[in-house]
Automatic annotation (TrEMBL):
GO terms for molecular function: alpha-L-arabinofuranosidase activity. The keyword Cell division does not apply. It holds the Pfam family ASD1_dom. InterPro entries: ASD1_cat (IPR055235), GH (IPR017853), Glycosyl_Hydrolase_51 (IPR051563). This is Alpha-L-arabinofuranosidase 1. Residues 244-309, 310-350 form the Alpha-L-arabinofuranosidase 1 catalytic domain. It comes from Glycine soja (Wild soybean). Coiled coil: none annotated. Residues 1-26 form the signal peptide. Keywords: Signal.
Length: 350
C-alpha cells in the first residue's frame, strides 16, 4: 500500500517534470523532445547526515531573528568609528534643548570604543524623563508577565538617577520600569548595571528607554535587553528553535558569508560586551555578534545536530581540551567539554 502510494507520487512528479521540460522546449522551438526516466533502479543511497540546516546572517536571520537580543546597535558602533556618528535606530527622548546626544571614543572596551554621551541640560526636566530609546529591529515584542534581563555600562559626572523602561513605541505607555540610582563614586568610572524588567502589559511594538530627570552628563555603552525565557537559557528564541527542531536536522552549518563580509570567529567569542561586531556589507546591516561562534556550537548541541564549521583555526576552540589555548577560552565561557564538531566546510556553499 505504502509502496504503491509512493510510486504514484513519483509518477506524478515525473509527469510534472516532463511537462515542464516539454513546455519549455515547445516555447523555445516547435520541435518536441522525449524524456525517458527509468525509475526501476534506485540511485546511490543518500546518507542520513546530509540533511541539515544551512544558517547564514542574511535578512536578519540571526540579529533580530533566532538570536533573542532585543536591542539593535547595542554598542553604538553601527555608525562607524568616526565620531560623532549616527546612532540609528536609537532616538532622542525629549526636546533637543533639554538633551544633547553625541558619540565619542571613550568606551572601556578596547575593541568597540564608541560610547554615547548624553548631556542633560534641563534644570526642570519633564517628569517622564529625557534620554534615549531603542525600537529594536521592528519594534520589540514585550509580553505580559515575561522577564527581561537588562545590562548596560554607564559612567556619570555626579550621582546617577536613571529609569530603564519598556514603553509602547506608539503613545509611550509604560510596560515595565526600574529605577537605577548610584552615588557619584560608584559611577565615576564605567560600571556594569544589571536589572530585570517584568512586563505588566503586552505590546508587540515597544522600545527600550533609558532616561533621567536630572541635569548632568551620562555615558552609556553596550546596552542589552534579553528575554529570560530563551531556549535552554542559551539566548535563542524558543519559538523559532522549536521550528528548527521539527526539521530534525542532523547538522547545523554556520556562519556562512563570503570573505568580503566575513565573520571573524575570534571577534565573536568571549564576553559579548567586548566583541567588536561587524557590518555585513552584502546584506547591509550591522550585527553586534551576540550570536557568535560559541553560541552557534551551543545551538547545534541543543538541537541535537552536528555543527559544521568553516574555518580551520576554529577547530581547537570547538574540540580542543579545556587546557588548550582556544579550548580554554571555550571553557571560560561555560563549556569545558569539547563540542561534537566533526565536519568542516571549505569555502562558502561548497
Ligand atoms: C529549432 O529548430 C531548428 C530546426 O529544427 C533548429 O535549426 C534550431 O537549432 C532549433 N533551435 C533551438 C533553440 O533548439
Ligand atoms: C511601531 O510604531 C512606530 C511609531 O509610531 C511606527 O512607525 C511603526 O510602523 C510601528 N511598527 C509596527 C510594526 O506597527
Amino acid at each position: 500500500m505504502i509502496f504503491s502510494k509512493s510510486c504514484s507520487f513519483l509518477g506524478l512528479y515525473l509527469v510534472i517534470v516532463a511537462c515542464l521540460v516539454l513546455q519549455c522546449c515547445a516555447y523555445a522551438n516547435q520541435t518536441s523532445t522525449t524524456l525517458v526516466v527509468d525509475a526501476s533502479k534506485s540511485g546511490r543511497q543518500i546518507p542520513d547526515t546530509l540533511f541539515g540546516i544551512f544558517f547564514e546572517e542574511i535578512n536578519h536571520a540571526g540579529a533580530g531573528g533566532l538570536w533573542a537580543e532585543l536591542v539593535n546597535n547595542r554598542g553604538f558602533e553601527a555608525g562607524g568609528t568616526q565620531v560623532p556618528s549616527n546612532i540609528a535606530p536609537w532616538t532622542i527622548v525629549g526636546q533637543e534643548s533639554a538633551i544633547l546626544l553625541q558619540t565619542e571614543l571613550s568606551s572601556c572596551f578596547e575593541r568597540n570604543k564608541v560610547a554615547l554621551r548624553m548631556d542633560v541640560l534641563c534644570d526642570n526636566c519633564p517628569s517622564d524623563g529625557v534620554g534615549v530609546s531603542n525600537p529594536g529591529f521592528w519594534g520589540m515584542n514585550i509580553v505580559q508577565g515575561n522577564k527581561y534581563k537588562i545590562v548596560f555600562f554607564v559612567r556619570s559626572e555626579g550621582p546617577l538617577y536613571m529609569t530603564v523602561s519598556f514603553r509602547k513605541t506608539e503613545g509611550g505607555g509604560i510596560l515595565a520600569s526600574s529605577n537605577i540610582d548610584a552615588s557619584e563614586s560608584e559611577v565615576s568610572k564605567w560600571k556594569r548595571i544589571e536589572t530585570t524588567l517584568v512586563a505588566d502589559t503586552s505590546s508587540s511594538n515597544s522600545s527600550l528607554y533609558l532616561t533621567t530627570t536630572k541635569k548632568g552628563v551620562i555615558l552609556l555603552d553596550q546596552v542589552s535587553a534579553m528575554p529570560l525565557d530563551t531556549y535552554k537559557g542559551h539566548g535563542f528564541r524558543g519559538d523559532l528553535v522549536n521550528m528548527l527542531l521539527e526539521l530534525k536536522p542532523t547538522f547545523f552549518r554556520f556562519p556562512g558569508q563570503t570573505l568580503r563580509n566575513a565573520f571573524r570567529w575570534k571577534d565573536s567569542v568571549g564576553p559579548w560586551e567586548e566583541r567588536p561586531g561587524h557590518f555585513g556589507d552584502v546584506w547591509s546591516y550591522w550585527t553586534d555578534e551576540g550570536f557568535g561562534y560559541f553560541e552557534g556550537l551551543q545551538l547545534a548541541e541543543d538541537i541535537g545536530a552536528r555543527p559544521l564549521w568553516e574555518a580551520l583555526d576554529g577547530i581547537e576552540f570547538a574540540r580542543g581540551e579545556a587546557t588548550s589555548k582556544w579550548g580554554s577560552l571555550r571553557a571560560s565561557m561555560g563549556h569545558p567539554k569539547p563540542f561534537d564538531l566533526k565536519y568542516v566546510a571549505i569555502g562558502n556553499e561548497d
